[in-house]
Write a structure and sequence with these properties.
By secondary structure, the chain is an alpha/beta fold. The strands form 2 sheets. Strands 2-1-3-4 form a 4-stranded parallel sheet, with helices on both faces. It has a 3-stranded antiparallel sheet with strand order 5-6-7, with no helix packed on it. Helix 4 crosses helix 6. The structure holds zinc ion (ZN). The site of zinc ion has 8 residues, from loops.
Length: 157
């Protein structure tokens, strides 16, 4: 089972990066601290936060609530900590909508022709679509840029 996450607003960008890596990352941006804890426990999600206050919570001390306390200030350092401490990989990368966290499904180019730019239609063959927002994804240059960013984050000290 791949771990599922819930991301606090103070590290909100990490929700997108977890989704890029294909992980289920809930990001309830208006949730209170108590709601975050309740959702994490109810949905068996690991909480990712920069708020050290969570470390003092009873549910964390008792080991009921799993959490990662993010130390680094910068995004790259945060990604590095995430990848290393949670043993993340890209095996299921690009399988989830970056906007809504829903799994993507393969879709025929013909079915989404009106949603993709001409040059993409000419050069790409593999497409997937979000079942919720209908956004269409393909392995373009932004994918390789994101993979490079993850690799860099993981290499630096
Ligand atoms: Zn979507």
């Amino acid at each position: 089972m791949r771990p599922k996450f819930i991301v606090d607003v103070n590290v909100g960008r990490l929700a997108t990066w977890l989704r890029i890596m294909g992980y289920d990352a809930a990001f309830p941006r208006t949730a209170s601290d108590n709601e975050l804890v309740r959702l994490a426990l109810k949905q068996d999600r690991l909480l990712i936060t920069r708020d050290s206050g969570f470390l003092l919570r009873r549910s964390v001390r008792l080991g009921q609530l799993r959490m990662l306390y993010v130390v680094a200030d910068d995004l790259r350092g945060q990604l590095r900590q995430l990848i290393r401490e949670l043993h993340l990989n890209l095996d299921n990368g690009f399988s989830r909508c970056l906007r809504c966290n829903e799994p993507l499904a393969p879709v025929d180019k013909a079915a989404v022709a009106d949603q993709i730019p001409d040059y993409v239609a000419r050069t790409q063959t593999v497409f997937s679509q979000c079942s919720s927002c209908r956004r269409v994804y393909w392995p373009g240059t932004h994918w390789s840029n994101m993979i490079s960013e993850l690799a860099r984050a993981n290499q630096e000290e």
